[in-house]
Amino acid sequence: MAQLYFYYSAMNAGKSTALLQSSYNYQERGMRTLVYTAEIDDRFGAGTVSSRIGLSSPALLYNAETSLYRDIASEHAAQAIHCVLVDESQFLTREQVKALSDVVDNLDIPVLCYGLRTDFRGELFTGSQYLLAWADKLVELKTICHCGRKASMVLRLDSEGKPFSEGEQVVIGGNERYISVCRKHYKQAIEQGSLQAIYGAQTPLN
Ligand SMILES: [Zn+2]
Question: Which parts of the sequence bind Zn(2+) (predicted)?
């Protein structure tokens, strides 16, 4: 029986690397995968999933209008698909998460979604909300805070490197303006309006 998986984490936990490894494992056994990524993530050029350690794969793009069930069913009818992998799945709509669950339930194709759990305000992304609610398997990909605790929160930094938690739930793209921290240090950084509690006098590496 196919299942719907949600691999979630803060930023820089190696989500794309994990996706590419899983896709490769299928292909190595002669099986066909479909890889999707969000149209708004154009860090590496349109239609590519790339990991920070140098792996990459072509990808189909999705946006809020994409009919994922129709597209996947049509591809599957033309040539069997053995696994669907979705990067940046936090940007899926409620309807698209439902559509991916239909791919699992009606077409019996496993669907592996990779995404951020929360935004820089500590709020769930829509796609993550419904994946957390409806996925068969939830898997946390861990990364660590500067202090060594698990980093579960994302801090947004302004152009002067000061953290803030107001404003739009904007696209999360590169590494430069967001860092992953533990909950304790997230709260301290927001309260103090600086990264002093996390790094002390040291300069952050990124
Ligand atoms: Zn910490």
Answer: 145, 147, 182, 185
Most confident listed range (30-44, 52-66, 102-116):
102-116
Would the pLDDT of 158 be above 60?
yes
Is residue 71 within a helix (H) or strand (E), and if so which, with residue range? helix 68-78
Centre of ligand 1 to C-alpha 34, Å, is: 37
d(CA 85, CA 89): 9
Give the C-alpha distances (Å, rounded to integers) separating 135 from 13, 100, 114: 20, 10, 12
How much is the average pLDDT of 53-73?
94
Is residue 168 part of the annotated active site? The answer reads: no
Residue where a domain stops, chosen among 118, 141, 164: 141
Q: The domain that contains 43 carries what CATH number?
A: 3.40.50.300
10 carries a ligand binding annotation: yes
How far does the centroid of ligand 1 lie from the alpha carbon of residue 9, in Å? 15
Q: How far apart are the CA of 159 and the centre of ligand 1, in A?
A: 22
Ligand 1 is a single-atom ion; what residues have CB below 5 A from it? 145, 147, 149, 182, 185
The active-site residue out of 39, 65, 75, 88 is: 88
Cα 181 to ligand 1 centroid, rounded to whole Å:
5
Nearest in space to 124 (alpha carbons), one of 4, 19, 6, 17: 6
Q: Phi and psi at residue 124, in whole multiples of 5°?
A: -65, 140
Can you tell me the distance from the alpha carbon of 46 to that of 157, in angstroms, rounded to the nearest whole number? 25
Band of residue 170 on the pLDDT scale cut at 50, 70, 90 = low
